[in-house]
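_Per-residue structure_
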Amino acid sequence: MTTRRIGVSPQAMYQSFKGRLISGEFAAGERLRPDRFRDEYGMGATAIREVFLRLTGEQLLTTEEQRGFHMPEASFEKLEETLAYRLLLEAEGARLAFLHGDLEWEARLYAAHHKLAHIEHRMNEMAQIKPVIPVWTRIDWEFHEVLMSACPSTTLREAHRNSFERYRQQVVAILPTYGFRPETIPQHAAILKAATERDAEACRRAIEAHLTSHRDLIVERKTDPREGSGANETRRAANIETS
C-alpha cells in the first residue's frame, strides 16, 4: 500500500524522483503518468507534471504530444555516447581539480572513497544488491563529485553531473547487476590513487577503464538493450558472482 506524504515540495520531489530515475526502479521506455504518484508524494498532477518537465529538460525523461512521459529508451549507441561525454568532462574536470585542489579537497576525496569502498565491499558479499542500489548510486556520485569539486568551472561541474546521471540511467537499464561487479572496487581505488598523486593522465585512464568496463560487461553478457525491461526482469533473480 502506498503511503501518502504530506507537504512534499516540488524541489523535494524533484530530488527524490531523480534518484529513482537513475537507480533502475523503472524500465527503459516505461510510461510514467503523473497521476500514478499523486498519493505517494501528496502533490497534485499539475505540480508533478512540472517536475517531470524539469526532468525532461535534463533528458532523464522523454515526452511526446499525446503520449505523456516515458523513461528514455536504452541502446548500446546511447550508452557509448553518454560514456564518451562523461569521460571527456570528468577527465578534464579532474585535471583542473588537481591544479586547484588543496589539502582539504584531498581529505574529502579520501573520505568519500572510504564510504564508497565500504558499501561496495558489502555489496560484493550480498546475494541480492537491489535494496542498496539507491544508496550506492548516491555514494558513487558523491565520490565522483568530490573528485571534480576543486574544478573552478561551475558550468563544467553541472554538465558533468548531468552526464553522470544520463550514463547511469543507460547502465542500470541494460545490466541486471546495475553496473556493479567485483572489479568496480579496485577501479575506484585506481581513480583515488591517481587523483591523490595529481597524475591527470593516469586518472583519465583509470576513469576510462572504469566506464568502459560497463560496456565490456554488456558485450560479455550479450545483453540486448532493445529488450527494454529485460534487464529489470533478469535482475529479479540475478546474483553478483564473486568468483
